[in-house]
Request: fold
Amino acid sequence: MPSPDHGDFVWINGRVTRAEDAAVSVFDRGFLYGDSLFESVLVRHGRPFRWQAHRARMAAGAGLLRMPPPAGPMLDDALDALLRANAAGSGSVRVTLSRGPGRRGYSPRQAGPPTLVLAWHPAVPAPERGPWQLATSPYRVLAGDPLAACKHGSRLANVLSRAAAEEAGADEALLLDSGGHIAETSSGNLFSIRGTGLFTPPVSGLLPGVTRGCVLEIAVPLGWEVHEQALTPADLVASDAVFFTTSSLGVVPVGSLDGTAVGNPAVCRPIGAALDALVDRECAAAPMA
Reply:
């Protein structure tokens, strides 16, 4: 059995408890139907990065899924209690909101109360590694899907895409939409660099990543011209550099797509360094939660 990658304590439905003692109903709709949403929040120096942005996206997602959003002050208190209980340093917190237990069937009527869980995942030192290799997923996502705007719990396309990529010897999957345009990777938002231009797909039909937003903030002061437009796999092959972003990993350079080399990963370093400095600066000045 693999060693756990989580902290000793979780926060669940109003209280901190040991992770091995935490339990969710077998009739919970998040377990039965993926009727849930989640956020992954970067933590550095024991403080959350862009916590308010994650809170706002969760509230918007709850509205989209017709769930009552958790109260902001309660989330603040829950995060603070979780980080203190685990003596948190650097890592990430997963916040999961489910519609809660309900009757059998798809109808959400009479479901609830909601299940809310916060779990701490400490950062694990990793050996230095090269650029990631991408493989195009055989699974397509629906172009313009309104549900793509939130991190809902129905992630089978992402799970199976990542599995297919790993079976092909790659590190990560590239997901295309039903029109053949790039949507995202299985875990983050994609960027292409060409000359002084920084290109990324528009947020319509994909998750508006918090880290994606940070990269767009810092790109212009670094001298990049930002373009939000549709991209194809051919655009990536013609790029000077390609990277994707996630909350936990930051800027991740890409070395190849389906076995074909793409650009020079070293071109991504200034953006990665600027993002890392932004995280350090904001977390050093931020309150605990």
